[in-house]
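Sequence in, structure out.
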Amino acid sequence: MSAAADPRPTPTPLTDEQLHLDEVYLRLDELRAHTRGRLAHVRREGPSGSPQNRSERDAFATLYEDRLAQLESVEERLVFGRLDLTDGEERYVGRIGLSDAEHSQLLTDWRAPAAEPFYQATAAHPGGVVLRRHIQTRLRSVVSIEDDVLDLDAVTDPSQVAGQGALLAALAQHRTGRMGDIVATIQAEQDAIIRSDSAGVLVVQGGPGTGKTAVALHRAAYLLYAHRERLERSGVLVIGPTPVFLRYIEQVLPALGETGVVSMTIAGLLPDVTATGTEPDEIATIKGRGVWARILPRAVRARQRVLSERPLRVARETLTLRPADLRAAQAKARRTGKPHNEARVTFVRHMLTALAQQYAQALGEEVGEADWAELTEEVRSARDVRVALNLAWMPLTPASLLRDLYTKPHRLLEAAPELGARTRARLAWPADRVPGPGGEWPEWTPADVPLLDELAELLGADDSLDREHSRREAARRAEAVAYAQEMLSASGAGGGMVSAEMLADRFDGGAAVGSLADRARADRQWTYGHVVIDEAQELSAMAWRAVLRRNPSRSMTVVGDVAQTSTAAGARSWGEALDSRLRDGWRLETLSVNYRTPASIMAAAHAVAAAADPAHPPATLTSARDVEGALRRHHALDAPATTAAVVAAIPADTGAIAVIAPATLVAEVARALGVSLDGDLRDPVVVLTPGQAKGLEFDHVVLVEPARIQREGHGPGDLYVAMTRPTRHLDVVHSEELPAGLA
């Protein structure tokens, strides 16, 4: 009798990988369910108990919330690689590390030392790796695999496909309006930067398409893994050029297993300042000059005045304000080395002592130690005294002082004579921008924020404002407790087991202190363990001061391309930006391969940039690929109408499409296309200025009036940026003559 046929399908590499993938996802689901259960248990405990118990509960809640956020964020492409080693071990590489219930390793975190060979092994230096497998997944299914054979002598099946298939497949994927991670396809030069030492300032110079932004974000995730104990206490700050850019990259770090990173623009550095105003680049450049580091201390010092001698009425007596007393008190205050508002406490204390001694003499009474405080308070509360001390050393806010400089020419001249009359006139707010009583001041601009930050450092906290905040908090708390007591009395609830204070805690959401990211965003003085700056070539001198203030340890990843500098306040070389601030405390790494932009588009962009600024041509990059017919030109009589026609002819399955136009033309182009200027990057078509497009990438770009962009732009980098955004096709629409290099 013949043997029955085996009904099971023949195992294949694809089915083998699917079995392992199923096991990993089953374990992920188990861990999610367990973490949700622990979090629910902690939350059910409520806000009762001792302060220590509540603190412990909050700490556990934060721990479980962070762990659950990590587990939820790695659903997509959880497993992406496998290493076959010479000792027979199979090591799977993925977004996070996972072990089964018996603590056997199911998945190695891509940041772990054990995963380094996945990125560093080559045929010349296999490092014990026989085969590297790239696993492509969609949802929870394996869809393809690509094998790199690194040691032919050690494999039993030499027909395995070797090469860069996984990288090319990733480059060919459509863009989605959100930046994707490159964790599955990190190249060796990128991996060396990602894993480099955290100490000092690492500058990553990279032209368009080299993956510098992705490298910086993966480096942040790697450092959080390798130095978690240190960085979990202080956090990582990511600074990007625009809110649009931050929305574009926001999914990368969670996808890599990190959720607690703080991201913001320079305009968002101050928690209580909204900087949405606009201004000409010339004015922003003036505000960015390093000379403000000398101007602003002068402006503060000018508010510390020695008044002329004058009488001060205290009750029925008349005292004398003496310039010598003012000078002595101010000298003692300055010797404390504290900021203006904090040093004012010392100034006021010494002046009150001098005036109280006068008052005691005027009364002709012996004042005992027990009565001295009452006598001093009587002097302090006298209107003449309060006015005089405020005139001599006024408590200040950054906003009020900077507004004074913009609205009072004599104040700006007093603090900044070196700026010159024309420059000071450019900074002055015109009369129609100064509000009347009860009116609103103009909006701050992003260039104002570093100046406000500098002033906040010089002025320090205003103790009178702190007292007012404490008073308001106490009143709010008393109101909440009173309302809770009223509810308990009216309903009879609680049965004596719930107090009004406990119920008020419920109203406040308990005693939770918030995540590290929330606390860091709310605290101007927060210092981060590591800072990542993207498009760092755009930072002004004053912006650099504000950033460095937040990272005293000088552990930073700075990425950008000096050929793409588009503001006059930015830098044309890294030495220009950093030598005076960091001396030899920075090092440079260069990314040399353009993985994104087709070679023909890149060549045209390089020619345009070199012709526009021969003294600073962009670096020549090696292009990983080209696309047939990538660059097309369209002459137009009506550029917006032709743009609409070009966009309409783009195939529906193209992917992400952007129209990049001069700032003076974007509104007209958007109307011709029938789209909004505040659209989401995930919309089928978005219309952007070159500045808004910085750092982004799209499958297809339609570039409108390049000569006008070059003429109206902030710098030669604007057109270079706009031309290098596409990953497949660039259509150029023009009614004007094309710039040199593009024609």
